[in-house]
Each structure stands twice: as structure tokens, then as C-alpha cells.
Design a protein that fits this description.
globular, mainly alpha, two-stranded antiparallel ribbon
């Protein structure tokens, strides 16, 4: 693929993954700003969310990557190797949730409101970041003979371009959430729908991905985290849907 987007010489290299990761955050910031403006919220909120989510997301993604790919001895013997490459998106999501909680406390804003604002932006940014994964040749799928299968330089067989599957799915999911966000829905509904679907999709995509196994045979670490995400927000969605139906019945 194209892990190096631009080589400026003199050791100055611009990597595809880094460019699309940054682009994903910038687009997410624009989406959050637009929604915060529509809701007439604190104009400093998007910047606080961008900073907090970026730092916590990168740290969380790096910690999980290190946990999955290196022992403490391996890391200490060559820390530069592990700190300059590799992230795990599930760890990034956990970090972002922590950042949202902290920002909600600092800004005295309802945590669920922030979840509703950030969820569509996060999904779109994740989809953009997956383009960087594709160009970098990481997070690919299992062997595949379909017409759109791709072959990465380090592999002999063709595989599922799961990164592109993710990008296309996230684009559709974002469009759906962006459309329904203006409807009269209870607080927490948008994030409940978005994260339930996101968790379910990630669980299923892992079935055709080469990934890190968990302590449960047949399930990856990402599948366990995705299952937890889908269940937690699925329960929340059920509660909110029941509340809406109850109010409609009273009317």
C-alpha cells in the first residue's frame, strides 16, 4: 500500500496513517462545533472536547496496543519502536469516554448530552481514520477471493479490505445519525443508537479480521469490548425507547 504519503527528504516523512488520523479528528471537531452551535451551547466546548478526546484517545489507543503487542521486557528494551507505531481503536474509544466524563464535570454539562453530540462525529472520524489504516496496510481481514479483495505487500494471499468496509459503514451510520439528531428524541438516544450499532458492527467485522485473541476461545479482545459496548448502550436504548412509548401511550 502507501504507508508513506510524502517523503520530504532529510528524514522528514509524512505518514498516511498520521494524516488521516489528524483529518479524522479535524472533521470530528467540525461536526461537534456545528452541533454545539445548533444547540446554542458554550462556544469553547468543541475546543475542550477536541483537546481532551485527542489526548485521551491517543493515550488509550497506545496503552491497549502495547498490552496486545509487547511484554514489559520487550517495551523497555526498545521503547521507541513501540511508541512511534501502532494504536488500538478500542483503547482509543475508552480514552475518549473518560475525556468526555472529565469535560462534562469541568464544563458542568450533562454527560449524556456530550455523548449525543460526540457520537456522530466520533463515528465519522473513525471511518476517515480507517482510510489511513488501509493505506498503511494494517488491520486487514482474513483471506478472501472476492473481486474486491486486496493484497498487501507483506502478504501472499488476497484479503478482505476490512478497513474500507469500516469506512463505508461509518459513512452510512453517520448520515443516519446526523439526519435523526434534530428529531424530538430523549437525551441519550442518539448515542445509544450509534454506539449500539457501532459495537455490533465491530463485533461482526472481527469475524473476518486477523486480530488479537482473548481469554475466551473463539473471541477476540476487540469482540469482548464491542460486545460490552453494544450491550451497555443497547440496554440504554431499550430504556429510552420504553420511556418514549410510555409517554405516547399516556397521550
Amino acid at each position: 500500500m502507501y504507508p508513506v504519503l510524502l517523503d520530504l527528504g532529510g528524514g522528514l516523512v509524512i505518514y498516511s496513517y498520521s494524516v488521516f488520523l489528524a483529518l479524522g479528528y479535524l472533521v470530528a471537531y467540525w461536526v461537534v462545533s456545528a452541533e454545539a452551535d445548533r444547540r446554542k451551547m458554550d462556544p469553547t466546548l468543541p475546543s475542550a472536547l477536541l483537546l481532551g478526546c485527542f489526548i485521551a484517545g491517543v493515550v488509550g489507543a497506545k496503552i491497549l496496543f502495547l498490552y496486545q503487542n509487547a511484554t514489559l521486557t520487550e517495551f523497555l528494551s526498545n521503547p521507541g519502536r513501540y511508541l512511534t507505531a501502532g494504536y488500538a481503536s478500542v483503547g482509543g474509544l475508552v480514552g475518549i469516554f473518560c475525556a468526555l466524563w472529565i469535560v462534562s464535570r469541568l464544563k458542568k454539562t450533562d454527560f449524556q448530552v456530550l455523548l449525543d453530540i460526540v457520537c456522530p462525529a466520533l463515528i465519522l472520524g473513525y471511518g476517515i481514520g480507517r482510510i489511513g489504516c488501509f493505506l498503511n496496510g494494517c488491520d486487514y481481514g482474513t483471506a478472501c477471493s472476492l473481486p474486491w479483495a486486496v493484497s498487501f505487500s507483506e502478504r501472499v494471499v488476497s484479503v478482505h479490505p476490512t478497513q474500507i468496509y469500516d469506512t463505508l459503514f461509518m459513512a452510512v451510520l453517520f448520515a443516519f445519525l446526523w439526519k435523526i439528531r434534530t428529531q424530538n428524541r430523549p437525551t441519550g438516544f442518539i448515542s445509544a443508537v450509534g454506539f449500539t450499532i457501532l459495537g455490533t458492527q465491530r463485533f461482526l467485522i472481527e469475524l473476518i479480521r486477523e486480530t488479537t485473541p482473548s481469554f475466551i476461545e473463539g473471541l477476540s479482545q476487540a469482540q469482548l469490548a464491542s460486545l460490552l459496548l453494544a450491550v451497555v448502550f443497547g440496554v440504554r436504548l431499550f430504556q429510552l425507547s420504553g420511556s418514549v412509548l410510555g409517554k405516547q401511550a399516556q397521550v
